[in-house]
């Protein structure tokens, strides 16, 4: 097996063709990683969530990293690591265009909202459950792939 670097174009192609990533954020020196669905467009990864630990942590420290990978034949794989910045898209004037963009990209998949909206504990009926759209601005990107033989 040999390892190769992916070009910037190959990295963005993998992001554009992928949906599942592992989002890492950090607060007070403690990392935290969760799987999330995303949609890539124009140097941003768009995603949806309910309030919780990752949103709280990314609000406190917007520096994040996202790992995306795809298996190939046998032991072959491709992966991309994005270093980027969390940007919340609140339901307010000034963010409507980007929020609509997030919605239209994510809703290309059926039940796109479900993993982000469901929690083990159902919030009280009286509680206001905020729907959060956010995006990660891609600052740095790197990619690698393994190929068998040669
Ligand atoms: C395939 C897949 C796709 C997903 N897509 C999305 C998505 O698009 N958007 C989204 O918001 N969420 C998605 N999730 C769920 C996500 O991984 C988190 O579980 C969820 O968002 C809650 O994260 P939180 O930080 O708000 O945790 P909180 O509800 O605030 O809970 C925090 C506590 O629960 C633990 N915890 C949280 N999630 C997990 C977990 N998955 N496994 C084990 N322990 C956990 C943490 O360690 C922490 O101690 C997806 C999960 C999977 C498996």
Structure description:
It is a single chain. This protein is α+β, with helices and mostly antiparallel strands. The protein has a single domain, classed as Electron Transport, Fmn-binding Protein, Chain A (Pnp Oxidase, Chain A, Roll). It is 22% helix and 44% strand. The chain is built from four helices and eight strands, in the order βαββββαββααβ. Strands 1, 2, 3, 4, 5, 6, 7 and 8 form an eight-stranded antiparallel β-sheet that branches. A hairpin with a 2-residue loop joins strand 2 and strand 3. The longest helix has 11 residues. The termini are close together. The structure holds flavin-adenine dinucleotide (FAD).
- Annotated CATH homologous superfamily: Electron Transport, Fmn-binding Protein, Chain A
What is the molecular shape? globular
Cα-based radius of gyration, to the nearest Å = 17 Å
- Mean pLDDT across all residues, rounded? 92
Please report the number of helical segments. Answer: 4
**Quick one: how many beta strands?**
8
Low-confidence parts, pLDDT < 50 over ≥5 residues?
none
Q: What small molecules are bound in this structure?
A: flavin-adenine dinucleotide
Strand content: 35-45%
Named at the architecture level, the CATH assignment is: Roll
Structural class: alpha+beta
CATH class: Mainly Beta
| Main sheet makeup | 8 strands, antiparallel
From the structure provided, what is the oligomeric state, counting identical versus distinct chains?
single chain
CATH topology: Pnp Oxidase, Chain A
Roughly how many Å apart are the termini? 7 Å
Number of structural domains: 1
């Amino acid at each position: 097996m040999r390892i190769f670097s992916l070009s910037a174009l190959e990295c963005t192609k993998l992001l554009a063709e992928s949906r599942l990533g592992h989002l890492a954020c950090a607060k007070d020196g403690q990392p935290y990683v969760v799987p999330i669905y995303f949609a890539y467009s124009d140097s941003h990864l768009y995603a949806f969530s309910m309030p919780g630990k990752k949103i709280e942590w990314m609000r406190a420290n917007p520096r994040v990293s996202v790992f995306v990978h795809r298996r190939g034949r046998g032991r072959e794989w491709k992966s991309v690591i994005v270093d980027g910045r969390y940007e919340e898209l609140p339901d307010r004037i000034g963010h409507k265009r980007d929020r609509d963009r997030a919605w239209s990209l994510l809703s290309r998949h059926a039940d796109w909202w479900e993993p982000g909206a469901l929690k083990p504990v159902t919030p009280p009926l009286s509680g206001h459950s905020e729907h959060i759209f956010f995006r990660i601005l891609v600052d740095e990107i790197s990619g690698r792939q393994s190929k068998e033989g040669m």
